[in-house]
Amino acid sequence: MNYKSRITLDIVFKVVFKATGYLVLALLGGIFAMLIYNSISFFLDVKPFDFFTGMEWAPTAKNPKYGMLPLILSTTLVTFGAMLIAIPLGIGTASYIAIYAKPRVKNILKPTIEMLAAIPSVVIGFLGIVVLSPGIADLADLPNGLNALNGAILLAVMALPTIITVAEDAIHAVPNAYKEASYGVGANRWQTLRKVIIPAAAPGVITAIMLGVGRAIGETMTVLMVTGNAALMPTGMFDSVKTMTATIAIEMGEVPYQTTHYYALYAIATVLFFMTLFANIVGEFFINRFRKYHAV
Amino acid sequence: MQFKTNRLSSVIEWGSLLLSTAIVCFFIAVIIWEIFSKGFSVLSWEFTTMVPKEGMTSGGILTPIIGTVLLTLITSAFAVPFGICCAIYLNEYAENTWVTRTIRAAIRNLSGVPSIIYGLFGLALFVQALNFGTSLLAAGLTLGLLSLPYIITTTEEALKRIPNSTREAALAVGATKFETIKDVVIPSAMSGILTGIVLTLSRAAGETAPILFTGAAFYINGSSGYVNQEFMALPYHLYMLSTQHQSIDQVRPIAYGTALVLVIVVFLLNLTAFYIRYKYRKDEN
Amino acid sequence: MKTKLSAQNLNISFGTKQVLKNVNVSFNEHEITALIGPSGCGKSTLLRSFNRMHDLSPDANINGTIMLDDLNIYSKNIPVTEIRKRIGMVFQKANPFPKSIQENITYGLKINNLPHGKDVIEKALQEAYLWDEVKNDLKMPATRLSGGQQQRLCIARAVALRPEVILMDEPCSALDPVSTLKIEELIKHLKKKYTIAIVTHNMQQAQRVADKTIFMYLGEVMEEGPTEQIFNNPKNEITTNYINGYFG
Asked: Which end of chain C, N or C, is less packed with Cβ atoms under 10 Å?
């Protein structure tokens, strides 16, 4: 190849590479624009106040109601329940792996948890139907076990690998100097863990939790399959609930194009987008603080 | 006295950590056991090579298998070149300006966007605006967008690991920047890049939400192969069999079989990635 | 003595930090010239400016001229890849391509449209004193060679392109004494065909191989002259102090 064509190729590809970078921006911009555009179309028909505080979600009724409160409360309930389970288990497991586990045990545990992360959400949902649902129904004497509790447990299972991996990295990254100083004044492993390591790793652990929360909020298939999908104001863990993600998934397939109902689903998606965005930004804030603190 | 209570409390507390780990392992064990034990009996040569028959109550899952394979091919055809080029831009060309920082932030945020929102975007862009209709192409492109952030991140990490001295060596013998990247940097980073691609594909194969309204269908007559038509896919098949089918109990065994096949596919892909990583580390040393 | 490569009034800064101040140096044809000085004196920066490696740094600011024979290497008429064909470089830590031994030699030749047959490969490896050790394993990955062998491969890679000048940036600093001596032998042999500029931290090495020595300090050239004169009869006080190990 002669020199001129080599240089041309060099320039052409430089442009191509740069273009892909900008296309990524266009992608995020496009998603954002789509959400906002359709949400605005929605708010032309329905007052935002009614949307955010309305307690009834009945878009196909004769007198359609677009109150998203039941949906957002359902998402919150299931996510909260999931975190109640996943946070202690996740941090506990992460601490165990980072501090106590012998290398051989570590080498088995870490890939196993990675495998858990790889299991598709629809399979977890399926297990929720065939294993968890009858179990909950028996224990609580209910006709079926498709409720918020089922969803919370499954979401915990899905969020655990994320929480464990990120928290374990954070605990592992705490400089040895801190641990040595603590042992040096006579503290044992547990005291060191509780009083020195976890506080030092705290920002990273918070990141782990926020990423887990983000995952739980955005999860669709699992909650769709096991929470019962009744769009009513939730009163407890044994209620059938309908999360925001499930609402979109179920109703989008049936809704006629560009009707108020259609736009309403995009409005829900916009709220969902901002919720996960917020969780991720908070997570990032803390991981940056962590990196700055421990830049050894 | 105090010394003894100290030791006792620390043992209890260590025990509780061990207990959390044990509970997590228990979850994993239950999942694996349930799927393998009940799905194994359904698995057979016929199961994977026959198409569904009699309203899905008998026959096999060949059509969803083919659908998932084709879908994954389209996803990679789109996401791999696009993702690698973007990673090359970020690692080899981009300077630390606010534009670059914004692109990086955009990638981080895109990886956190729920998959259902990608489904909505795919619906709006590929199915409606570009008029591809509900099709293999639309769904494949949607999954491609979903996979993009992960491929970019893993490829960039692989490129970062190549020391600058390697690039300088190529430039010093007169290579252009593009030639340096094409002939020296990418081949050296290949195992890391491949690992990222394989892991991305394993995720894409298991995704359901993005294909719900972009092309997945419950039943297609004959083997789906046309990119402009609807298709069957393993995750969607499992979803429908376990929630929407009219005789849910009858098809339960097939659902287990589908779940098992899906899990095996995902596990095999993960193991492949693991093997690539392992072989690379061996060659390095 | 004909001047092969030279710099006039060369000033280089990175951002606000000035690294080279008004440097004037020349390298004679078929001679080995050593650049010595304490860490941070700018000798590597100077060396790398000769094959335009600073083109890679976006914040580099280069003022002054660099001449190869009677050609300004920054002139728009000549492509930078041509400069790098005529001025080769060997780096501090051996950096063979992650390819086979033979591909390491042929890569530069192929992209520059030069013949790259077996005879060319053999000739380059012979010149680098490496042929006998690898002639049966040309397809082996270069990374499996020892440190000293890898560095000789890098030298072979450079001479394969038939350059006129070879720049060497502390080529032996990562090697054991035995390999170092082998490479110093090789360098002394190479000057018959090429002009060599070598940056070194090792004053004894400069005395062993260099015809001419340039001493730099804090970005400026303090003294320049025949090696014998620099080490036995330095004119500058700072040079004397460095040579005697009072600092560095």
From this structure: N
Is C85 within the bounds of a domain? yes
Alpha carbon of C57: minimum distance to chain B alpha carbons (Å): 10
Confidence of residue A296 (pLDDT cuts 50, 70, 90): very low
Please say if the pLDDT value at position B1 is more than 50.
no
Give the residue extent of every domain in chain B.
Answer: 2-40, 48-284
Q: Quick one: CA dihedral B115, B121, B124, B129, positive or negative?
A: negative
CA C168 → CA C26, C47, C48, C55, C180, distances in Å? Answer: 16, 8, 9, 18, 13
Q: Say if C128 falls within a structural domain.
A: no
Phi, psi of C120 (to 5 degrees): -65, -45
| Interface contact flag, A276 B114, Cβ < 8 Å | yes
d(CA C77, CA B194): 41
Nearest Cα neighbor of C80 from A13, B162, B179, A18 is B179
Residue of A243, C15, A255, A30 whose CA lies nearest to B124: A30
Instruction: Give helix A3-45 / helix B98-112 axis angle, nearest 10°.
Output: 60
Q: What is the pLDDT of residues B68-108, one digit of tens each?
A: 999 999 999 999 999 999 999 999 999 889 999 999 999 99
The burial of A183, by beta-carbon neighbours within 10 Å (0-12 exposed, 13-18 middle, 19 or more buried), is given as middle
pLDDT at B5: 58
Range of the domain at C30: 3-91+164-243
What predicted TM-score, i.e. pTM, was given to this entire model? 0.89
DSSP state letters, B228-241: TS-B--HHHHHHHH
Q: Who's near B237: CB < 8 A, 6+ residues apart?
A: B61, B64, B218, B258
- Count the domains in chain C: 1
CB pairs under 8 A between B and C: 62
- Distance in angstroms (rounded) separating the CA atoms of residues A183 and C180: 47
- A143-157, B269-283, C12-26, C194-208, range with the lowest pLDDT: B269-283
| Three-state SS at A30 | helix
Residue C143 forms part of a structural domain: no
Q: Does A139 touch chain B (CB under 8 A)?
A: no
Query: Does the model's ipTM exceed the 0.85 cut?
Result: yes
Query: What number of other Cβ atoms are within 10 A of residue C125's Cβ?
Result: 27
Q: List the single residue in A with minimal CA-CA distance to C109.
A: A1
**Span B48-284 CATH architecture:** Orthogonal Bundle (1.10)
Q: How confident is the model at residue A232 (pLDDT cuts 50, 70, 90)?
A: confident
Q: Do C113 and A2 touch (CB under 8 A)?
A: yes
Do residue C84 and residue B171 have CB atoms under 8 angstroms apart? yes
Q: How remote is the C-alpha of A180 from its chain's centroid?
A: 36
In this structure, what DSSP letter does residue C146 have? -
Query: How many residues can be counted in chain B?
Result: 285
Residue C168: CATH number of its domain: 3.40.50.300
- Rounded-to-integer distance, Cα B163 and Cα A245, Å: 44
CA-nearest residue of chain A to B14? A190
The 3-state DSSP composition of chain B as helix, strand, coil percent (nearest 5) reads 75, 0, 20
State how far the Cα of C72 lies from the Cα of B254, in Å rounded to an integer: 76
Report helix, strand or coil for C102.
helix
C91 in Cβ contact with B164 (< 8 Å)? no
Give the A window 160-179 contacts with B, CB below 8 Å: 160, 164
Laid out side by side, the sheet with C212-217 consists of C87-90, C165-169, C195-199, C32-36, C212-217, C220-226
Contact A257 B108 (CB under 8 A): no
Cβ contact C56:B95 at 8 Å: no
Residue C217 lies in a domain: yes
Residue with token string 């890569």: C107
Contact criterion met (CB below 8 Å) for A148 and A85: no
